[in-house]
Amino acid sequence: MKSMENIGLSEVQNVYSGPEGELWELIMGEQIHIGGFASSMDLAEKAAIGPGTSGVDLCCCNGAGMRFLVRFRDVARMRGVDATETVVEQGRRRCQQEGTSDKIEFTLADVCDSGLADASADFVWGEDAWCYVVDKDKLISEAARIVKPGGVIAFTDWIEGKAGLTDAEAERFLTFMKFPNVQSLEGYSDLLAANNCEIVTAEDTERFGPYVDLYLNMLNMQLTYDALKIIGFNSELMQAMGAEMAFMQELAHAGKIAQGLFVARKK
Predict the structure, then answer these.
(1) Domain ranges of the chain
(2) Which CATH architecture fits 2-266?
(3) H/E segment holding residue 137
(4) Is the pTM of this model over 0.90?
(5) Contact of 208 with 256, CB cutoff 8 Å
(6) Confidence class of residue 65 from pLDDT cuts 50, 70 and 90?
(7) What are the pLDDT digits (tens) for 10-51?
(8) Which residues contact 146 (CB under 8 A, 6 or more apart)?
């Protein structure tokens, strides 16, 4: 697992409390993960998440994943956990606006120490967000603690691809993304197995390359003004961020970074 020692929770909170978080939502939509609706549906189907169940979304951000689940999978109850107050408050407002507050609640807390009850959820959910968590061991342990025996842990995340990152590539990628570290398919699978979970699915979705192409095309061809407005019309910053995204695009197409999809059942 490639890591950066000087990136932690406070850096992630700064991202999603300021313009960088606004930029990600501009290019990726309210569902700030690769593949949006299609990715969420793919994960939900592979995890067999259905009507009447209750779930916990760890690193829920603005709650878009939970709103998807209650609307399109008929999930009865969701609780989201996130450590960034800005996105939690935003999520509560959006749930009220969309009429889903009766089924969705938020907890402002560290996802590695959520305070939620043992075996209290039918499933634990995450979408492209656990890459921001420093201690992946504690995160998976917390997910396994919260889910009921026989329940599932279902998540997608940005991972190191099969081709692998050099140390220099990892340092540049992690610094730009404000990730403290990046796991692999094998790494997450080992953590799930070590926490008494049987792996159902662990795969590369192969979405990363085509979607980063899409995001760069949107920024370059349609959303340039909108993005510049968010960062105070700082053209030099825009160029620098564009260069980092182009570098990320190269890594994705070389198989060095990927979106992993995981479904595991607690024994």
Answers:
(1) 2-266
(2) 3-Layer(aba) Sandwich (3.40)
(3) helix 136-146
(4) yes
(5) no
(6) very high
(7) 888 888 888 888 999 999 999 999 999 999 999 999 999 999
(8) 56, 114, 116, 117, 118, 119, 120, 121, 124
